[in-house]
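Q: I'm building a small set of examples for a reading group on sequence design. Run inverse folding on the following structure and report the sequence directly after it, with nothing in between.
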């Protein structure tokens, strides 16, 4: 999930263009049959493999994951190249990738077993469904935080409409809340954390940072009256603490977290 090697990542969409996505492999009387469903073009729009119709499409978790990983690649490149592009171009790319991620996620989640991961094969694929959802929320958080000074740490200048900045800030917090809900069984319950891929742990860290930054901002204000639509102070802090506890558990499995995670918060 990193931008290396750069030439490969930068051409990822072109290289994956028109190659069939991971296929469904149903069991039939004569054995197993590979059923190709979709392929992506160079703009990362899907189309059905010839001789297939929309009504015959079979939901495949691995294919959905490839789609969302493709969006995450472009999100990374946008963040990397942000300073070298104009504000207008960056905002256009932000909105385009945000819409693409949302359209892919909503379509995939509304089809087949992705909507309810506990089907006949749901328990087996729950970790992959979790990964797909985590990627989607992190795409939105990463994209929209770029123009919100509170989350990016930099001022993007007066050329960005304050209303756009406000909407992006709301989007960041909304997806941080959704990500926290996604990890609730692992943060507060008895979910098996060994099923969590490293990227999901990274997302837990980012979610904690979002809520911690929001809490610090609220504490810096002279008025402590609650603002409609925001979480109360105790709720934000409990999410930060939950993220910290989760990372503290994960450090036994990941070398990158061997140092005390308390140094990051």
């Amino acid at each position: 999930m990193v931008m290396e090697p750069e030439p490969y990542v930068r051409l990822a969409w072109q290289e994956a263009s028109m190659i069939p996505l991971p296929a469904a492999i149903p069991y039939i009387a004569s054995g197993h049959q590979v059923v190709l469903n979709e392929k992506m073009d160079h703009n990362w729009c899907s189309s059905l493999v010839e001789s297939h119709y929309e009504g015959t499409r079979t939901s495949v978790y691995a294919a959905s994951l490839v789609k969302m990983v493709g969006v995450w690649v472009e999100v990374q490149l946008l963040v990397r190249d942000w300073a070298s592009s104009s504000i207008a171009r960056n905002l256009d790319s932000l909105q385009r990738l945000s819409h693409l991620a949302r359209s892919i996620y909503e379509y995939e989640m509304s089809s087949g077993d992705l909507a309810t991961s506990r089907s006949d094969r749901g328990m087996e694929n729950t970790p992959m469904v979790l990964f797909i959802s985590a990627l989607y929320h992190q795409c939105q958080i990463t994209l929209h935080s770029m123009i919100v000074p509170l989350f990016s740490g930099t001022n993007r200048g007066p050329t960005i409409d304050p209303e756009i900045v406000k909407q992006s800030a709301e989007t960041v917090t909304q997806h941080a809340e959704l990500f926290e809900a996604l990890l609730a069984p692992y943060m507060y319950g008895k979910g098996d954390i060994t099923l969590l891929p490293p990227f999901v742990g990274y997302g837990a860290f980012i979610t904690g940072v979002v809520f911690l930054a929001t809490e610090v901002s609220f504490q810096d204000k002279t008025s402590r009256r609650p603002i409609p639509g925001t979480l109360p102070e105790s709720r934000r802090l409990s999410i930060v603490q939950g993220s910290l506890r989760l990372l503290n558990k994960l450090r036994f499995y990941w070398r990158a977290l061997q140092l005390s995670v308390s140094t990051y918060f």
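Residues 151 and 210 are 7 Å apart (CA to CA).
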